[in-house]
Design goal:
There is one protein chain. This protein has one domain: Pleckstrin-homology domain (PH domain)/Phosphotyrosine-binding domain (PTB) (PH-domain like), CATH 2.30.29.30. 9% of the residues lie in helices and 49% in strands. The chain is built from one helix and nine strands, in the order E-E-E-E-E-E-E-E-E-H. It is globular, with a radius of gyration of 13 Å.
Length: 107
């Protein structure tokens, strides 16, 4: 199942955005409009869960790393937390957490 979403930053004057897409092989995301795509092969994703990220943990698409194990890319309060087989945790903001999870699980 394919998935594509582009979330503008808030406030809109910031040059940040979060763009996410899933195809049959890989999850891709980037944090700026013309930025480099980061990729996670689907076979590296162990499990997913929908989460809400607190207000002070999501300022407008900034990349934030806490505790060395979890990295956040969030522009909204809703997100999907990906538990990678390597032990790392990646949290991606999305307006449609269930759609992203279905794409990851069904691909």
């Amino acid at each position: 199942m394919a998935f594509h979403e582009r979330q503008p930053a808030w406030p809109r004057w910031l040059p940040l955005a979060l763009e996410t897409e899933v195809d049959g092989e890989c999850l891709r995301f980037r944090t700026t409009r013309r930025g480099k795509w980061r990729e996670v092969p689907l076979h590296e994703i162990g499990r997913t869960e929908g989460v809400r990220v607190g207000f002070f943990a999501w300022p407008v698409g900034y990349k934030m790393a806490f505790s060395g194990e979890e990295t956040y890319y969030v522009t909204s309060g809703r997100a999907v937390r990906l538990h990678l087989r390597s032990g790392r945790i990646l949290t991606l903001g999305t307006r449609d957490p269930e759609g992203l999870r279905r794409a990851l699980d069904g691909a």
